[in-house]
Amino acid sequence: MINELKHICEINENFDLKNYNTLKLDSKCKCIVFPSNEDELIQVLKLLKNEKHFVMGNASNIVLPRFYDGYIIKLSKFKEFNNENDIVYAQSGVMINKLATTISNMGYSGLDPFTGIPGTIGGCIYGNAGCFGSSMSEVLIDARVYDGKDIITLKNEDFKFNYRYSMLKENKNFVILSSRFKVEKGNVDVIKQLILERTNKRVSTQDLKNPSNGSMFRNPENASAGKLIDDLGLKGYSVGGAMVSNIHANFIVNKSNATQEDIIELVKYIKSKVKEKYNIDLVLEQEIIK
Ligand SMILES: Cc1cc2nc3c(=O)[nH]c(=O)nc-3n(C[C@H](O)[C@H](O)[C@H](O)COP(=O)(O)OP(=O)(O)OC[C@H]3O[C@@H](n4cnc5c(N)ncnc54)[C@H](O)[C@@H]3O)c2cc1C
């Protein structure tokens, strides 16, 4: 398998992922694969069809194990984007922050709410990422997706978007290749000012100093997961190297050499306390990779 992959594109065996996940967990994988175009990606996906694998974005919403005994496909070479007036095209490995900042600086609004999210276009569509009252579902026109057999175009409504949800979560073999977004011409100074205000809000309310994946739990209906956890006095509570952030109670941070096991134990503890006090079942926003 490794030899066949080597003939298609760049690969690395026993690859160290510590600097490839925002939680900075010590993690390695059997093999990481870097296709540089759609053709290579599809060859790789066909080859790995019956092997353990997944497509990784910026790993800012997944919790990696110490060792992933499979193949990780990294789309960091899928980084082209452009716009034709109010239609923006982006390959799935583009960082949303870079895309949103560039397009906003050109005087277009629509992508500006996403400037602080450290994820790729692929990961953001997968989880319908959002903030400040906007989410991917509001700006996505359509995306080109490999469905395991063919390249198809999925329209916005085909993704069945909901709060931090797209149907890709139930179709793990679908891989986003590229997508198109609708933006609107606006006033560049107003857009920049909005971005500045939102950045200040992030800096003052979120824990951006310690490695994390952002929010650990989804907000339950009519409640804030962070407030529920905070009201239980759990800020600063830790298991091994994983700790509930002192700044934002829905952030679990890597205080020192945390492992996936530490995070799972801490998640269990928080869930049990929230259930005991409020009879609410918190649901993970992040994905634990086994
Ligand atoms: C400091 C901080 C702040 C954050 N703020 C926010 C926020 O405001 N709002 C928010 O929603 N999130 C936020 N996040 C979480 C995270 O950045 C988002 O969920 C982001 O969308 C994840 O993208 P990613 O590229 O890192 O995906 P990854 O974590 O790499 O992957 C997530 C899932 O997407 C799948 N995936 C990735 N690429 C593709 C593809 N091309 N095709 C199909 N599936 C794919 C993966 O297989 C995986 O299942 C924050 C995280 C941090 C660390």
Mind explaining what this structure looks like?
The chain has 290 residues and is of the alpha+beta class. It has three domains: 73 residues, 2-Layer Sandwich (Uridine Diphospho-n-acetylenolpyruvylglucosamine Reductase, domain 2), CATH 3.30.43; 110 residues, Uridine Diphospho-n-acetylenolpyruvylglucosamine Reductase, domain 3 (2-Layer Sandwich); 82 residues, Alpha-Beta Complex (Uridine Diphospho-n-acetylenolpyruvylglucosamine Reductase, domain 1). The protein is built from eight helices and 19 strands. 39% of the residues are buried.
Characterize this entry briefly.
With 290 residues, the chain is α+β, with helices and mostly antiparallel strands. It folds into three domains: 2-74, Uridine Diphospho-n-acetylenolpyruvylglucosamine Reductase, domain 2 (2-Layer Sandwich), CATH 3.30.43; 81-190, 2-Layer Sandwich (Uridine Diphospho-n-acetylenolpyruvylglucosamine Reductase, domain 3); 207-288, UDP-N-acetylenolpyruvoylglucosamine reductase, C-terminal domain (Uridine Diphospho-n-acetylenolpyruvylglucosamine Reductase, domain 1), CATH 3.90.78.
Which fold name corresponds to the CATH topology of the largest domain?
A: Uridine Diphospho-n-acetylenolpyruvylglucosamine Reductase, domain 3
SS strand fraction: 25-35%
Q: What is the rounded Rg? A: 19 Å
**How does the major sheet shape up?**
5 strands, antiparallel
CATH class placement of the largest domain: Alpha Beta
Counted up, domains total 3
Order of helices and strands: HEEHEEEEEHEHEEHEEEEHEHEEEHE
Distance between the termini: 21 Å
Task: Give the spatial strand order of the biggest sheet.
Answer: 6-7-13-11-12
Poorly predicted runs of 5 or more residues: none
Helical percentage: 25-40%
Helix-and-strand structural type: alpha+beta
Specify the number of helices. Answer: 8
Number of strands: 19
Spell out which ligands are present. flavin-adenine dinucleotide
CATH architecture of the largest domain: 2-Layer Sandwich
Mean pLDDT over the full residue set: 97
